[in-house]
Fold each of these.
Amino acid sequence: MGVGSRGDEFTVPGHELHGHGARLESDLATYREVWAGAPVGNGPNPAVPSGTRQVPMLFGGYSAHALDRMVRWGEGYIGGSLPSSTTAPRFEAAKRAWHEAGRQGAPKLVVLAYFALGAPEAGRANIQDFYRLAPKEIATNAVLCTTRKTIEQTVTVYTDLGIDEIIFVSAVDDPDEITRLADIVT
């Protein structure tokens, strides 16, 4: 979870880009209250059954606020599909923040990895389109795995960094991409 930086994601009146961090903080408090069984609205009834567990949340982003939210509200940190030279320092910062906040154990570390095995050019175009309003360094540095070799390298790099989970995200809308990926990673 992160606050985001794309202006087009904040077009609803009352939910503009300005103030989105404070709104997220308020929403996080509401989520925790609801999951703890607090009544919702004006009635006495909780929104969830008794015994409902807190939903684990991962936080991502490149600011000190992102790490602060992770240690206060989350179970770990999620990094984007960027070069490991960019994400590795963020994972280290997440571990440091976790330790400095007195949290027990270690944060769960997860990374996203885009892939397009059957149509790499379409995948690149989709990523560029999605990130066209994001900071330029994100759009130009997004990593796209397009071959068996790049998938295997991604797994090796993040395994060596101690990442707990890699979430491969198809950059194209072809369901056969999942089979292509499974043939490599299983």
Amino acid sequence: MGLPDKIVELHRALDAADVPHAFGGALALAWCTQRARGTIDLDVNLFVPPARAEEVVAALPDGVAHDDADLARIRTEGQVRLWWESTPVDLFFNTTDFHERVAERIRDEPFLGVDVPFLSCRDLAVFKAFFDRTKDWADLEEMAAARTLDVEAVLGVLVAHLGGSDPRVERLRALRG
């Protein structure tokens, strides 16, 4: 099964189990820039607390491998990487009030004939700035070029969580253009 079909199957499985969710990472980025970037993984934000880990994992499609150590990691870290054949599936659970607000801004987009939920561009940008990897800053630059990066809104979140002196704040300010 290819990545596009896995996206739809994963969405349908979580939706059937009433697990609110949205896809992030390169998948959401494609909607924000109107340009697809190659990816091999599925990033899924789950708008439930880590305490619901067993319920969520039980809802995943057959073939998504997991064990007790993965459940423990979810409970302690709020996130985990699972594998669906050769596809990494990164699950991110609600661990802050910010995550709860993210759920209010998801957007459904048509994907293979199904409306699939994705992170808003604003929230995707916040997560990318938090992760602070080289590829995330390249993605943020792409979003700025596509005019889908709300620098002021993202700055507000970063300053609230990291303080105004964090290097990521200055780096984001430089993207104002």
